[in-house]
Amino acid sequence: MNHHLLKPASLLVLFLFLSYVFLLIFYDGYRAIYFKANMLWTPGSEASYSAVVEEGRKLVYGEFFVELDNLNDRSTMDGSANARHKFRWFYKSLEGSVYQFIAALPFQKSMNFALYARYLHYSLWALLSLVFIHLNVSLLSGRKNFSSLLMTAITFLAIISLLISMPRFYDQHSFIAMGCVSAGIFFGLKKQILPFLFVLAVATANRESGAALGIIFALLNWREKYFWVPLFVGPVIFFTLNYDLFLFREFYQMNNFVVSGEMGYVNAYNLNKAPTLTLIFEFYKYVILLAPLFISYWLVRKKPFAFKLLAISLFYIFILLFVGVEIGVYLSYAVIIPVLFSLIALYWQTPDYSMPRSRQNPKIFG
Known about the structure:
Elements: H1 8-40, H2 49-72, H3 89-103, H4 110-141, H5 146-164, H6 174-189, H7 193-206, H8 214-220, H9 229-242, H10 276-300, H11 306-322, H12 337-347
């Protein structure tokens, strides 16, 4: 990690970033709590509104464990809408055990602190993403200073704020996936395969698409020694965590691997179900969302790593469009943010700096 990240000014920027993201997530969580409270509230009832809010808080807290119970339940392998989500049980189980431990502590409002821990957890993943995005920018641009961190943090915060303001923020896997992609690019650029494999394991435990994170290492280190190892290890980790699912004959249905448009929402497979005006509106939003990525690539297309970074982003766009993300759910596209900043870093590259000539840490292991 760059030593300037530990300077007081840099630490202040990181702390302010963490605080603001926490407040964004905190606001989203309490908006859900008060929404449920208003659904439960009956004017003129004997129960106070504060008591109803407490019930709403319990419902929001309990929803996490309802989801976790579904992920851990191996008895419903019938191709239902959430069957493929059962791949995501491992990370969520560890996360849930922390919340349960906090909620069981013998002090007042312990459940509130369990909710706060959840908000802090996702905020820390956003912070970790920022740190690795900044390291990628420093590595590719040659600018290792406070100004680089400040501009990266401000821009990243603006993008995150926009994504969080859109529907379906409760997709709890996206910040973790973004952090893993950010770290994956960093360790891929530095050819450090062992820490990359650790990130790959976390990504796979978080989301089924995380098993494909090895594509980042393979593309950035094409034809280097052992470039293929993460491509092999990802599926092995995925199968090891979920081997029991593959024992069910009922599990071998298309919806458990690729969402084909039969789940009741509009995706790339059933666009004809959406009104034309809705599709036009969503199309323009996708153009706005993805335009910076392609514009950045066009500006740096002749520089080393540019096409490889574009290939990584196209790979994830394909997964998001054709493997299961609903049209209009934008937080999942947070995984592309690290690639965007890496392309911008190539444009921002100092005239006397060239990443390939001074590529740090050429050892494939380390």
